[in-house]
Automatic annotation (TrEMBL):
Native source organism of the sequence: Urochloa decumbens
Protein's recorded name: DUF6598 domain-containing protein
Keywords tagged on the record: Coiled coil
Start and end residues of each DUF6598 domain: 172-407
Pfam families listed in its UniProt record: DUF6598
Amino acid sequence: MAEGGGRGSEDLGARWSNYPKRWGCGYPNQFMSRDGGGSRAAAGPSAPEEVEEVEETGLEPFFFDEAAALADYAAAEGERKRKEEEEREAAREKEILHQRWRAHMSALDAIRGYNHKLKCPTFTRFYFTDLSTFDLDEESPLGPMRYTDAAIEVDATACCRQGEKRFLPCDSVNVLSFKVTSLNGDFPINVYGTVLARDSLDLKCVYLFRCDRNNCQLLNSQDDLLLLTGPKRGLALIDAVYFEMDLKIKDDQGQNDKQLSKGFLTLEGPPRSLWDKMKVESDSLDTELGTVELMFAVVNRAVEATISIEVIQGEFYGNITACTTSIQKSIVLHDSKLAGAMTYNGTVAIQLQLLRHVVAVSLKEKLEVTAQTAGGESKSTIEFTPRASSGDEGCITCGPIVMLVKVRWSIIKRQALG
């Protein structure tokens, strides 16, 4: 038995020695060692039959690739973390939007008022934007003469040209006057506060009138006009221009000031830009204490004229106004009653103090500047043909007084290039 078992073990061991080569498996059989030892070897012929059974099934051995498994796990873990981060980011964005919405609604509540003309609640300030991030009190940083030095010309069709590019300049608006047309009370009144415009360039504050409580303007009757000191640049009438006012009446006996006017008016652009002729228009805002009226003129294909005036001979005391050839209602540039007399001292020209410097002029028209001495004793007018850039100057004479008028031209919106 010992010999038989030994020979059987040797034969079986020889057969198993070839097993790894035949099946491509380098692992030793768990039932029998290659040297013929082990209890299953002593069992005799059952071992070879078992081997034959394995060979006949055609099943391949199982392989465990640890590197691939680790890579799969790392990829799955990375995907899980990515989704978690996306969910956290979405939650943060949702919370930010919710906070901005609450801030926007809070800002709307703060500017909600009552429109006495429409007899319904409305908003007293501009609100067509995201008020959670927009500062309603920020002043526009844009000034005049932004493109005065640009190489832009006007062709025969009243279009602008820069190099090979031709374009139509945007429309604009000249604010002619602002006054209290009716009052539920008695004149005179001391008025202070602000009147401002917002345009398509940046929607920020461009002041037309600004007085604090210590520097009120006295209005003796409804015929008196507010002394406008702006705009400081040309207004771009592309979509709309918004006029916003917040005016109060000072109580000289104490601190019981009254709200004269608080609200805004909207001046839409089209279809005015299609008009052949420009005309004076007005809009009003009714309040509990009365009515205020804004008078303006839309200017088609407009350029910006920035004006400065110097006294080069004599002493000037009077007023200086500007207008365009189609709209003869004047814009007050200088009033000596407010600024005092200006006298040339023989060495250096005296710069006149102007209430307003900027006038919008259509390329189809001309700018007229008129100087008149006090009492109307002498009056003189000078005309300028508008340009898209560069400047002009000319002398205006009122009796013995000579003044140098300088005009710097600029387009209002360069983005119209195309």
